[in-house]
Amino acid sequence: MNTESNFSKNPKLLLEVRELCVHFPIRSGLLSSVQSVVKAVDGVSFEIAPGETLGLVGESGSGKTTVGRALIRLAPITSGDIFWKSDDITRLPESQFRSLRKEIQMIFQDPFGSLNPRLTIGSIVGEALEIHFPELNLKERKARVAELLNQVGLLPEHTRRYPHEFSGGQRQRIGIARALAVHPQLIICDEPVSALDVSVQAQIINLLQDLQEQMGLSYLFIGHDLGVVQHMSDRIMVMNEGKIVEAGDCKSIYQSPQHPYTQKLLAAVPTLA
Amino acid sequence: MASYLIRRILYMVPIIFGVMVITFVLFFVVQSPTAMAKRILGPKAKPEAIQNWLHNRGYDKPRFINTQPGATWWDSQFVHQMKALATFDLGYSDATGESIARMFRQGAIPSLLITVPSFIFGFLISLSAALFFVFVRDSRTDLFGVILCVAMMSIPIQVYVIFGQWLIAVKTSYLPAFGFYLSGASTIKFLVLPVILYTLADLGGEVRLYRTIFLEEIHQEYVKTAQAKGVSPARVLFVHVLKNGMISIITLVVASLPFLIIGSLVLENFFGIPGLGNLTVNAIRTSDFAVVRTTVYLGSLLYLVGLLLTDICYAAVDPRIRFQ
User: Fold this and answer.
1) Which residue in A has a C-alpha nearest to residue B321's C-alpha?
2) Do A118 and B243 count as a contact with CB atoms less than 8 A apart?
3) What residues of chain A, 56 to 85, have a C-beta less than 8 Å from chain B?
4) In the structure, how many helices (H) and strands (E) does chain B have?
5) Residue of chain B with shortest Cα separation from A184
6) Residue pLDDT, tens place only, B27-54
7) Which segments of chain B belong to CATH 1.10.3720.10?
8) pLDDT over 60 (residue A4)
9) ipTM score for this prediction
10) Each residue of B164-177: pLDDT tens digit?
11) Which of A186, A255, B79, B246 has its CA 20 to 30 A from that of B279?
12) Interface-testing mutation among A116, A133, A178, with chain B (most B C-beta atoms within 10 A)
């Protein structure tokens, strides 16, 4: 297997993933011996350039969320390599990886469960600043939080409220402000709109696109709604049972899908005919 | 808030009334006051003496409703007793004639001297141990901890007491194995062993319960968010998980607070501590209805106060809950 990264060919790449595997052992019995292995992610490779949006589609259980989580170590990597700006970060100790969390952020699918109900919006957004920008004093931090809330369409006075006081769309905006707080370069968007109403989905999608334009962000946009993913992405990967079955630019995937799974997925999209 | 509290306090009235009816029925309908008098005065007591005893305590009146001609309907045992309890006129012991209010005041001190330190130590130790086991979760230490907890909660308190008395008092004779004497700082030597044993007896169950509560929290999505932010594992546990887990824990703990005053029935008996637990056991043994009635009344009041405190605490610690 070729372990040389593609950075020699394209030094401008932001992220490169090679043969990523995430396997979960299923243990049972008295001695909890490994009975079988669930291959959630099985040999996935891709790369993301600065300012690019890479879409990742697949049905539930295809492993797409696990890919996103493995990138920021919220899921254990079994094998494979992850390169960030040509550095191999796969086996970095957690203490060194922590500084990278500033550069790679994640927006979670569940706008309700992903915010700590006991913390105010100010603490939720401000905590990341406290960790990654310890040089900011309280006043500067508050000003930055207010600026971030403003940026995502919320009001600075919302800092003292708790998550339950907001609607799903507003909560997802809080999640976006939280991710933006540390000036990331890549944001993993794990089905950020699937829990929202259609009208609110459009607002959040537009917000993500505006932010990308303003800040030159890269996105790994994970979703099962093909329409939304197509709208957001430059390139798309189709994932099934832990493997990438097809990848290419938006147009070719949608107009002439090669793999039977992609064809089936596209045929299942409801249309207003 | 005020209207909520008033409503809650009004709800308590029918509950306490029900508890008192059941206690009254158990003592006066299931066994007769005459039998009670015979047991207290002795089998050779003259019928006049028994009649006198019953009359002095009002136990010769009709039970619930007075239907005798010329008498008002409420001139009955039950109404008189309920009226006395409602105004906290606790009366006198049936067995000794001592003032019940005084007996309770005297008994509360030894009980609290045992239960309050045990409660504080127990809470702090179990909280720290639970957090530690969650921090090292899925390791051998965690597994060992769970096994130890299950073992500790499977052993009844009597075993702790007997083993503790044998080990510390009989084998080493550093501390008294039995007894209690209230006299300033030297009281402490009577407290050490009961406090340690009372703390130990509850520890296994509490550690396990708190560990489960924290483990449930650590698998929530907001913990993933915190990890993605770059929050250290210790901070995840001590800020994010602890804050959320405390909602359940505080409510459990607060509900148990009023019971500290009642003390431990078993422990006080084993150590001969003249607390409220001992008082209750003796009252039941000697058919001292006046004392049992008061214990049940105060016990149910304390229980309801505990529940009310729990609800108030819920609203205080969980921003999602407000009084409506």
Assistant:
1) A164
2) yes
3) 69, 72-74
4) 14, 0
5) B229
6) 777 777 777 777 777 777 788 888 888 8
7) 107-279+302-317
8) no
9) 0.87
10) 888 877 777 777 77
11) B79
12) A116
The pLDDT of residue A32 is 74
Phi-psi map region of B230: left, alpha, beta (phi>0 left; psi -120 to 50 alpha): left
Identify the H or E element spanning A218: strand A218-223
Q: Up-side HSE of residue A192: CA atoms within 13 Å toward CB?
A: 33
* Residue for token pair 């209010």: B101
- Partner-chain contact A175 B225, CB within 8 Å: yes
- pLDDT surpasses 70 at A60: yes
CATH superfamily of the B107-279+302-317 domain: MetI-like (1.10.3720.10)
**Whether pLDDT at B230 is above 60:** yes
**Which two tokens mark B287?**
């058919």
Q: Does A92 touch chain B (CB under 8 A)?
A: no
CA–CA gap between residue B252 and residue B246 (Å, rounded) = 9
For residue B99, the 8-state DSSP code is: B
Cα angle: A129, vertex A134, A136; to 5 degrees: 75
Are the beta carbons of A162 and B222 separated by less than 8 Å? no
Residues B94 and B50: beta-carbon distance below 8 Å: no
Give the DSSP letter of residue B254: H
Q: Which residue of B has its CA nearest to A74?
A: B224
CA B255 to chain centre: 10
pLDDT at B224: 93
Give the residue from chain B lying closest to A98, CA to CA: B230
3-state secondary structure A115-131: CCCCCCHHHHHHHHHHH
Both tokens assigned to B34 = 């005459």
Closest to B228 (Cβ–Cβ): which among A99, A101, A118? A101
Dihedral over Cα of B271, B275, B279, B281: its sign: negative
Mutate to test the interface with B, among A30, A112, A127, A158 (most CBs of B within 10 A): A127
Q: Note the pLDDT of residue B205.
A: 92
Each residue's pLDDT tens digit, B255-304 = 888 778 877 888 888 888 888 888 888 888 887 878 888 888 888 888 88
Q: B157 — alpha (psi -120 to 50), left (phi > 0) or beta? A: alpha
Eight-state DSSP code of residue B71 = S
CB B202 within 8 A of CB B119: no
How far apart are alpha carbons B35 and B23 in whole angstroms? 17
Residue A225 confidence (pLDDT) above 90: no
Which residue type occupies B43?
P
